[in-house]
Write a structure and sequence with these properties.
single chain, about 325 residues, Rossmann fold, Helicase, Ruva Protein, domain 3, 2 domains, 14 helices
Length: about 325
């Protein structure tokens, strides 16, 4: 009987892995390329982590999130962050009902499954804090009432790295609350040619199919949670994170002069979770060192704070992480 249950469970897991590929294919009907961004958004969804997307305008950040929400059949809310946005515009407020002669709660757009915080650095700190509190606590307080946010709940925030005038950059401590910071690149020549052809056709409209249900999403979360991480892999994660704090102990003397602060313990947690998702997407129930290396840059790049010397020498966190992965070895 146990074998039968085990075989049935394996079949369900394989079915879910196939559905994930179908989700990616379905998004591809609308979005050309950007496979890495789609993968990272799915990692965030299935591991309960929020994503910060950074890239120049016009590279389909908003379109990808919107399309993914349609394919997953989830409630999508887009919030355009502006300098005059108030916390109540985000979470909701109390309004007076004249007929009933009492105050009623009007919920804000934060009450959705997939929330796109577009240009999060366009709003002041009090609005950013309201969003980050909801991300952390999964609850919102309006007046005397506290409400649970919908499940699943995923925040994807975007930043435009080009235009910094009139912006309110997220402090490092707040950026740390995002599981991944994903740098979205320009499309290749071939991809941009396909984008141009599609968008030049004013009648273009993709018929999207909903692939996953909420029940599927919760089931996949449990399956990813059960992916095995060996003790040697766990120690490798810790070594990587410690190397960002004490680079000289890992023969990274040159890099040490540029690092002001290393990664927080959230880096260890999120490396573990994200690597499990990468392994699951590859059809494995165990994590390999390659899975850690695949996701390390997205987990660590916003958690390593560099000093002014790094800026002067044109050294980036990507350079530090590349060196980190080459010098920190997995113990056997």
């Amino acid at each position: 009987m146990e074998e039968q249950v085990s075989t049935e469970t394996v079949d369900i897991i394989k079915e879910h892995q196939q559905k994930i590929q179908l989700v990616i294919d379905e998004v591809g009907k609308v979005v050309v390329g950007q496979r890495r961004m789609v993968d990272r958004l799915l990692i965030g969804l299935f591991t309960q982590g929020h994503i910060l997307l950074e890239g120049v305008p016009g590279i389909a950040k908003t379109l990808t999130v919107n399309t993914l929400a349609d394919v997953l059949h989830l409630d999508f809310q887009r919030i355009q962050f502006t300098p005059d946005l108030l916390p109540s515009d985000l979470v909701g407020t109390m309004i007076y009902n004249q007929k009933k002669a009492e105050f009623e709660v009007k919920k804000g757009p934060i009450f959705g499954n997939m929330i796109l915080a577009d240009e999060i650095n366009r709003s002041p700190a009090k609005v950013q804090s309201a969003l980050l509190e909801a991300m952390q606590e999964k609850t919102v307080s309006i007046g005397d009432n506290t409400f649970e946010l919908d499940r699943p709940f995923l925040v994807m925030a975007t930043q435009n790295p080009v235009d910094q005038e009139g912006t309110y950059p997220l402090p490092e401590a707040q950026m740390d609350r995002f599981m991944l910071k994903v740098f979205v690149e320009y499309p290749s020549k071939e991809e941009e040619l396909e984008v141009m052809r599609r968008m030049a056709d004013l009648s273009f409209e993709a018929n999207l199919n909903a692939i996953l249900t909420k029940e599927d999403i919760f089931a996949i979360r449990n399956e990813i949670n059960n992916v095995t991480v060996s003790e040697s892999i766990e120690k490798y994660i810790i070594e990587l994170v410690y190397a960002t704090r004490n680079p000289k102990d890992y023969k990274m003397d040159n890099e040490a002069q540029y690092i002001q602060f290393g990664a927080s313990p959230r880096a260890s947690i999120n490396l573990n979770r994200a690597a499990k998702a990468v392994a699951f997407f590859e059809g494995r129930d165990f994590v390999l060192p390659e899975d850690i290396k695949e996701i390390a840059d997205d987990v660590l790049n916003h958690r390593i704070l560099l000093n002014y010397e790094a800026e002067a020498d044109n050294v980036t966190t990507h350079d530090i992480i590349k060196s980190l992965l080459s010098k920190v070895q997995i113990s056997k």
